[in-house]
């Protein structure tokens, strides 16, 4: 578990030096636990990391150094030299030739591209059944992950960590099909645009401009933008890029699934010192950010619905204003955005907006338009 991996590969891809130092100190404390892990289990973990690199469509043909660095970052944290190039060479040979692994990975080297690839299209060792040593490696990795769940900077990922730990505790074997008879886990669909994640993250870290060809859902026109990429954010299983639009001289949000072409490797840019990743969406629900000030929101919910929200808050600013047998009034300090309005509408008659009046008016207008839509449809029938 790397000091940088948790942060860089988080839903927000936030990475700051003092946070990384903090995580490294915790990793050092846990190192004596890891040192008891047999070398072959580290190798199994490296094989999975190499496989992930070889199947990453966003960065094809990884070099030996790319593979070494990926394994280094994932297992030990960035900036180290615990894994050598000769180790990667041995790993690739083992994946191709070691019959005890239960597969012969069709890994080839491309002289033209200077990197490795799978000769068989669509191949991945992740599609293969896991052996006993693989399962032991999963148990070890989960135990390592559990050591860091209480660290303050990982609190926002606690539910994801819990889901992984719960799954392994129930049965560490992902091939255990009998589980489906007794327990069902929530499944997320794979959204389009994920192939852009790796190159975008590289350019965010290196502070290099990009050019995208972007098709909005609203007008279906293909637009070309030169951007300074700042942040990646996940929301409702979709990825978004927050970037400075050079032509419009403003920060904008772009859905990755709408990027039809990405040109990379442009000139470097200077980061706006006023941009704070931790604060950019502090008062937002979702991916809408505005320069306006957040407002105090009051909503009255039916008691039963309100109790659900008490156990799973809408926003970090949520607090209970009033509670009785029939209703629970909840307060938020957020921006009035489309996401907020849609959330309120999703609760139907179980919620009423108390303050501010302009939000209540917006919600009322949406409800009236919805009712008119149904009345028009019924009259045609």
Topology readout:
Elements: H1 5-8, H2 17-34, H3 39-54, H4 64-76, H5 85-97, E1 107-110, E2 115-118, H6 132-146, H7 158-170, H8 197-206, E3 210-215, E4 222-235, E5 238-245, E6 250-255, E7 259-263, H9 277-280, E8 295-302, H10 303-311, E9 319-323, E10 327-334, H11 338-346, E11 351-355, H12 357-380
Antiparallel strand pairs: 1-2, 3-4, 3-7, 4-5, 5-6, 8-10, 8-11, 9-10
Helix pairs in contact: 3-4, 3-6, 4-5, 6-7
Whole-number radius of gyration?
24 Å
> Which strand order does the major sheet show?
6-5-4-3-7
Mean of pLDDT: 79
Largest sheet: 5 strands, antiparallel
Structural class: alpha+beta
Distance between the first and last residues' Cα? 60 Å
Helices and strands, in order, run as HHHHHEEHHHEEEEEHEHEEHEH
The overall number of domains is: 3
Stretches where pLDDT is under 50 for at least 5 consecutive residues are: 1-39
Instruction: State the total count of DSSP E strands.
Output: 11
What fraction strand? 15-25%
Q: Give the number of helices.
A: 12
Q: What level of helicity do the residues show?
A: 25-40%
Q: What is the general shape?
A: globular
């Amino acid at each position: 578990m790397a000091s940088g991996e948790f942060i860089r590969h988080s839903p927000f891809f936030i990475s700051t030096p003092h946070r990384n130092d903090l995580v490294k100190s915790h990793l050092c404390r846990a190192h004596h636990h890891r040192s008891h892990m047999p070398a072959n289990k580290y190798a199994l973990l490296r094989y999975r990391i190499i496989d992930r690199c070889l199947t990453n469509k966003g960065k094809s043909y990884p070099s030996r150094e790319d593979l070494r660095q990926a394994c280094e970052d994932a297992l030990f944290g960035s900036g180290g030299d615990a894994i050598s190039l000769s180790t990667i060479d041995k790993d690739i040979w083992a994946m191709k030739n070691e019959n005890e692994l239960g597969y012969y990975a069709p890994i080839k080297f491309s002289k033209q591209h200077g990197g490795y690839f799978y000769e068989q299209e669509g191949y991945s060792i992740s599609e293969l059944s896991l052996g006993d040593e693989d399962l032991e490696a999963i148990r070890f990795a989960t135990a390592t992950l559990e050591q860091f769940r209480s660290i303050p900077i990982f609190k926002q990922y606690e539910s994801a960590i819990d889901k992984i730990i719960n799954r392994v505790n129930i049965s560490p074997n992902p091939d255990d099909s009998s589980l489906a008879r007794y327990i069902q886990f929530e499944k997320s669909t794979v959204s389009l645009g994920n192939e852009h994640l790796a190159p975008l993250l590289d350019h965010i870290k290196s502070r290099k401009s990009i050019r995208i060809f972007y098709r909005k859902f609203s007008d279906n026109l293909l637009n070309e933008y030169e951007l300074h990429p700042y942040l990646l954010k996940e929301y409702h299983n979709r990825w978004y890029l927050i970037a400075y639009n050079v032509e419009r001289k403003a920060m904008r949000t772009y859905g990755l699934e709408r990027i039809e072409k990405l040109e990379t490797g442009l000139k470097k840019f200077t980061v706006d010192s006023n941009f704070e990743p931790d604060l950019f969406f502090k008062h937002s629900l979702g991916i809408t950010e505005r320069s306006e000030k957040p407002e105090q929101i009051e909503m009255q919910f039916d008691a039963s619905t309100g109790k659900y929200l008490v156990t799973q808050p809408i926003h970090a600013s949520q607090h209970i204003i009033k509670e009785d047998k029939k209703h629970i009034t909840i307060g938020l300090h957020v921006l009035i955005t489309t996401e907020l309005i849609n959330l309120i509408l999703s609760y139907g008659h179980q919620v009423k907006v108390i303050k501010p009046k302009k939000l209540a008016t917006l919600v009322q207008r949406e409800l009236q338009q919805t009712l008119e839509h149904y009345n028009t449809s019924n009259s045609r029938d």
